[in-house]
Structures are given as structure tokens and as C-alpha cells.
Amino acid sequence: MTDVTPVATAASTSRPAPLPVLERVWAEAFPELSRPVTPVRTPRPRLLALNEPLAAELGVDAAHLRSPAGVRFLTGEPAEGAGAAVAQVYAGHQWGVFQPILGDGRAALLGELRTPDGRLRDLHLKGIGPTSMSRVDGFAVVGPMLREYLMGEAMNALGVPTTRALAVVATGAPRSHAGEVLPGAVLARTAASHVRFGSFEYVRAQGDPALLRRLADHVIARHHPGAAGARHPYRALLTRIVDAVAALTAQWMRVGFVHGVLSTDNVAVSAETIDYGPCAFLDAYEPGAFFSSIDRFGRYAYDRQPAIMRWNLARLGEALAPLLADDPAEAEQTAAATVATFDARYAFHESAAFRAKLGLDDRAPQTAVHELTAAALALLDEHGVDFTGFWRALARAADGDERPVRDRFLGAVPALDRWLARWGALAPSAARIRAVNPVYIPRNHLVEEALAAATAGDLGPFETLVDLLREPYTERVSLEFRRFAAPAPADAPRHRAFCGT
Fold it and tell me: Tens of pLDDT along 416-475?
């Protein structure tokens, strides 16, 4: 279960526990893209959630993080020997409009952890107070910070590349949020890095070719080292990012995830899911679903995610263009041609994802996979069928029991009869279906229920939900868990999400 531990008292330990050793790779390599920041000292820090599995992967002793010094460390309070935290500078297109400077407005990069296998992972805090790029006061509250923790663990367990939370600490300082006064919190997040498409957009806007090249070299070394040996390393870099982003987007579509605000400052060059603000998962299949309270026209709706990611890649290509060729016209053409490969790459990854969802192996004709996928989604859309539940029910159908699938539709549906016959003729594997179609996802009503309880001081529902989501493909047989696999009640209000993280 999620570790929920009150901060230890000074008398409970004889001496300060050693804390993680942080490197300052980004801050030292890119002072031009870093601004010093001093996190605001928290008056009464209390550990709400500590991600022990992640701590073990990072080579960090969880017991040390539970100590008074460890909890202070997780709020950004400087420790002896630790370097200064920095807010990262970037730009971005928000709602299609270029913003020349955005940057970390309430966040700070503490530094990088080197894992036991030698990889670097950023340790990044949210809710630490104002920075020089703050648009609001720079603080955060418990609910949104626990949301990001929960969503990251769910996506990781689903097999979707993601940033992950190491801890959430209550600060003891109430904060104003969405018209309410709520308990404050700080999130400690890890990521392969926090280099965003907007990082390159900012550098390109500065007109500094040397800095652009240094940033690209950094990303190659850290995320795409295979590009270094290519004949044209920067072209190879863009190609690899295009493919990685296409694969990530296909995974979102596989699990019914709606990011919410896919501006270029919210997309990482590492192709990890980042910034879980107004995100949500589909209940009933609705291709045009969007849940963000500020997305008035559905720019970032579920079915528009592939197109918007291609658009975002085009902006990255424009930023990288000076590195792709000496002649500006050739550079722009090369960038556009590379980004244009997204469509085929996405189609490949999406087809592979839905082939697995259907329980079909490579012997099934590609045309059949495409037609079955399209027909299934049309049926779900027409009849308002639960997205996650339908795909999981196919496992029972593959074992010979079609009732769980049919029970999701009202009355006789001849089109479903025809679909099941065509699909069954291809000998789908129930085991394959169960391996990729989850029982449990972060259903929106359950997430809101857990966060409301946590905000009020009861972390039990949050703990239970996190435990289930860490094993999303394993069905719990007890009656108490059935509600976690069920769609939202029919009379539940439509979910609305807010940019809380």
C-alpha cells in the first residue's frame, strides 16, 4: 500500500539520515535556461504518500526520506551539500498561440539522481512557491498533487511511458485554490528529463545557434544516443522523437486516456507523459470527449490527440530546422518531411496496440485488424458502451462466453453478432487480451472521490485506489472491488477537470 507516514519528530532519530545525492547536470550545462529559485519553507511538513517502489528503483532509501530531514528535502529545503534549485525556462504554443516565455512558475528542478544502472532521473518539485516566471502564487494543494501521483502510477502500470511521483508532502499552510481554501502540498516528481518541445522553441526564438546545438546534443546524449552515430545526427534526433511520440500517443488511445492540455510546453522530448492537470479516462466511448474546463472547443479531445501531437511536432521541427541543413529552405523542407512521417508511424503503433487489444497475433491480416477495430469503436460509440469494460470482456468471449460482451449492449444488436463472428473466426487469444486490456483504470468518479476524502484528511480511499491501479490487469474477485471496474453511475454528472497540476 501507499506509505502514509506523519513526519518524525526530532527526538525520534539520533542523527540526520543521509539524503539522496543530487547532480546538477542541467543547471551547470544550461545556465541560460535556468533561473535560481528558493523554495518557500513549509511550516509543518507531513508526508502523505511515499512511493517506495519508485524509491527502490532510484536507489534511494525510503527510510531516509521519512526522516525529518528527508521530508524537508522533499519540500525543497536545502540540505548540506545540495546545489541550488532552478526553475527551467521554456516557451510554448498554448491553444495554438505562441507564448515566448512560460517556464516553471511554481516548480523547481532540485537536480538529477543517478540510478543504480547509471541512468539520470530528474528530481523536480511542484508547489514550492513563486519563481520569476510565476503566473499565480506558485503554490499547490493536496488534491491535484495526489492526482498526479495516482495518474503516474496508473500509467506506469498500464505500460505507458510517464513521469512518476516520488512523494507528496502536506505543507501545513492552507492555500486558495479555485475559490476555496484548501490544504497546501508539494509534489516530488521524477522524469527522464523535463526538456519540452517548448524548450527548443524558446531557444530558437533567442536566435542563438550555439545554444540550440548544445541543447540538441544534450537531448541526444540523454534520450536518443543512437542518433549520435547517424550521418545527420539532428535529423536522426527529430526522426526518433517523431517515432517515440507516435508510439506514446497510440498508447494513450489504447487505454482511453485524454491528456487535457497538449500545448507544446506540456510535451516532453523524452516522450514521457507529463503534466497531469485536466486529464481523464474515457468511461463510455466518446471519440470527441474532452473534460478540461478551459478547453471550450475540444482542441485537445480524445480523437484529436494524434493530430495535435503531429501539429506539436511540426513546431518542434521548426525550432530544430537550423540544425537540419545549412540552406534555410532545405532545412524547413527536411523538418516538414520528417514530421510528415508521423502519420504512418502512428498508424503502425496504433494498429499494433489494437491488434493486441483484439487478442490477435501477426497471422491476422492487417486489413482485418483495421476493419475490426473501426467497427468495434463505431459500435461502442453508437451504443455508449464502456470503453475499458468492453475490451476486457472480449477475454471471456475468446474463452467461449459471449455474455459479458453482449450484456454491455441493450437488446439484440445484429451488428455486434456479425462483428463477433468475424472476430472469432481469427482465433483470438484470451491471454493476450487480458495482458493488454486492464480491469482497473483511474475512473474519474473514483479519482474525485479519493481526492475529496484525502483533502478532508482520510487517505484510505486514495491508498486503495493506488493499490488497485498498480496491478491493473489483475482482477480482484472480492465483491468490494467490483465498483472499481464498473463505469460511472448513469446519473453521475459529466466529469470536468481543471488545471490543478
Answer: 999 999 999 999 999 999 999 999 999 999 999 999 999 999 999 999 999 999 999 999
Strands 92-94 and 107-114: unpaired
Q: Which three cell numbers stand for residue 255?
A: 487505454
Distances (CA, A) of 430 to 71, 235, 293, 329: 45, 42, 39, 52
What is the DSSP pairing of strand 120-126 with strand 86-88? unpaired
Q: How far is CA 208 from the centre of its chain?
A: 31
- Greater pLDDT, 482 or 84: 482
Phi, psi of 249 (to 5 degrees): -60, -40
Q: How many CA atoms lie within 13 A of 246 on its CB side?
A: 23
Interstrand relation of 46-50 and 164-177 (parallel, antiparallel or unpaired): antiparallel
Cα–Cα nearest to 149, from 444, 471, 463: 463
Give dist(CA 373, CA 92) in Å, integer.
35
Buried b (16+ CB within 10 A) or exposed e, 362-372: eebeeebbeeb
Strand ranges (DSSP E) for 421-492? none
Q: Map residue 348 onto helix, strand or coil.
A: helix
Could you give the 3-state DSSP secondary structure of residue 229?
A: helix
Instruction: Tell me whether residue 343 is one of the annotated catalytic residues.
Output: no
Beta-strand pair 3-5/46-50: antiparallel
Given a contact cutoff of 8 angstroms between Cβ atoms, the answer to whether 335 and 283 are in contact is: no
Beta bridge partners of 3: 50
292: which 3 cell numbers?
478540461
User: Helices 233-255 and 328-340 sit at what angle, rounded to 10 degrees?
Assistant: 30
Residue of 243, 265, 283, 386 with catalytic role? 265
Label residues 159-178 b or e (16+ Cβ within 10 Å = b): ebbbbbbbbbbbbebebebe
Using CA atoms, how far apart are residues 298 and 301, in angstroms rounded to an integer?
5
What pLDDT band is residue 296 in, cutting at 50, 70 and 90? Answer: confident
Distance of CA 396 to the CA centre of its chain: 30
Please count the CA atoms within 13 angstroms of the CA of 243 that sit on its side-chain side: 9
Burial of 414 (0-12, 13-18, 19+ CB in 10 A): exposed
- By CB atoms closer than 10 A (0-12, 13-18, 19+), residue 344 is exposed
| 412 class by beta-carbon count within 10 Å (0-12 exposed, 13-18 middle, 19+ buried) | exposed
Output the nine-digit C-alpha cell for 148: 498526479
Distance CA 372, CA 354 (A): 9
Q: Quick one: which of 94, 96, 181 has its CA closest to 142?
A: 181
- pLDDT per residue as tens digits for the range 325-357: 999 999 999 999 999 999 999 999 999 999 999
Other C-beta atoms closer than 10 Å to the C-beta of 482 total: 11
Is residue 189 within 8 A of residue 165, CB to CB? The reply is yes
Please tell me the distance from the alpha carbon of residue 368 to that of residue 366, in angstroms, as a whole number: 5
Backbone angles phi, psi at 368, to 5 degrees: -65, -40
Residue type for position 207: G
